[in-house]
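We close this part of the discussion by returning to an individual protein. The encoding preserves chain order, so positions in sequence and tokens coincide. The sequence in question and its structure tokens are set out directly beneath this paragraph:

===
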Amino acid sequence: EQLKEVNINASKTNKFIIKQSETVGKMPLTQLENPQVYTTVSKDLMTEQLVFTADDAIRNAPGIQTMWQATSRSGDGGSYFNSRGFVVQSKFRNGISGIVTSANDASNIEKVEVIKGPSATLFGSAFSTYGGLINRTTKKPFDTFGGEVAYSAGSYGFNRLSVDVNTPVDAAKKVLFRLNAAGNYKNSFQDAGFRQSVFVAPSLSYQATDRLLLSFDAELNYGKGTGDQFIFFNQPVSALGVNSADKVNIDYRKAYFSNDLVQNSQSNNFYGQALYKISDQWTSQTNFSSSDSYSNGHGAYFYLLPNNTISRNDQATRDSKAYYTEAQQNFNGDFKIGGLRNRFVGGLDFTRINSKQFFYGATLPTDVSTIGTPANYNDFNLANLNAEYAKAKPNGYYTFPYAFSNNTYSAYVSDVLNLTDNLLASAGLRIDRFDNQSSKFKQTAYSPKFGLVYQPVKDVVSLFGNYQNGFVNQNGQDFSGISFKPEQANQTEGGVKLDAFGGKLSSTISYYYIKVKDILRQDPANTQFQIQNGTQLSKGLEAEVIANPFEGFNAILGFGYNDSQIINAYADV
């Protein structure tokens, strides 16, 4: 008998919640099982908010804020953020390195994970910081044909065309292909400034056997633009006559530079993964990534000066390049010992960074008034800047070649143990060998982590605590000839996570305390040397609520408070 057609209409409860991550702990764990704090921004939320870059998506995470926008220069040209008192950039993609040197297009992003606190045990120190890390999870090919083409337009000449096309390649649907691409152009709210970009991200998967899945991805990004306006100050408040930005006598609708001061940029990311099912309890994951970035052009910036004036400066790059390579092997297990469930990951990682960056700059010899439109307002242009560089001694001229290469060899393990159905304990350790091949400096560091989770109401309420570690390698010796050791950051944190009312309410509330020790600072007794006794404290409170109290209504609330202090530092800090 032929089945009759059945129509089902349903809406997902709290559609902006993603309850599980395979990346944060390098194993599948739900939010309530993981003692680490993180925020996930889904593609559904980005679509609802008309968010087109991962940088803008991050504003949904509490406790993190933008320090400055992307500059598109090679190497570190991506946006800078501040998390828990420390600088963070978006440098991870699907759990391994994926460098971004411009505004990060969201057309191929499934979700963005903002992972909080020192995380060196599983992610190392090459691309993470004491504030945590930002990981982008990308869209994957699927086994039916489909896609969409979208066009968006907005104020200040904003235009965007994007495409998402997916198709099986063969009749057996073992080979799948997906292409995400976008082109963007926008002007500025100021009287000068623009940015244009093209982003292409192909993805191919091949189910070689019932146990082996191969995946290959790329991200190709091309950009040209003036960048955003940067105004710094290096004068005391008494000289400037103001003590806050809103009191500065400047018209922020004026750019103070010309549209011909452009930076050309390019970044490429290539990825490969082999996922092999060894048995019902064990899997092998082999990852490889290769990234390169390039920039050439100018970057205007300004210094606020007394008497309502600003200096006009250029930080340019000339054929500046940076290369990153990472190879990683993980073995994941889900098994029982003595009747207790263990979820385990053990891995090896090799990371290579090769920098061939070149910076140079100069300052126009005449400052400009911020009052009205002075006669020399339009002087900061390419012709005048080239004329300054052509002088025998350009004003404020400098060059800064930033060339080095280093390798990092790492091994790590982490285990989550179910002592009971409601009580979980976790521990991990990383051994990291740093080798700076330019300076012949080598150093070994260790990074432990511990966690405890208790669920008084299973899968609804989770009380958690964690101890997490991060480190930075330090080269050199003090006055006594004692070699420096790695700088260390240790975090203790506790809080509560909720997934209540049938998923209608998801929340995380936590308090953290981070202490950084062994920071290098000037030796007061021997000023030509450094001593390693600097310390920094960072503590704070973060809260997040994602609620869907009734159908059609969603609320996302966040709060972050941070108190950072430098205890021992250079005298002028």
User: Anything to note?
Assistant: Residues 6-10 have pLDDT under 50 and may be disordered. The longest strand covers residues 309-337. The chain has one domain: 146-568. The helical segments are 43-48, 54-57, 120-123, 237-240, 382-389.
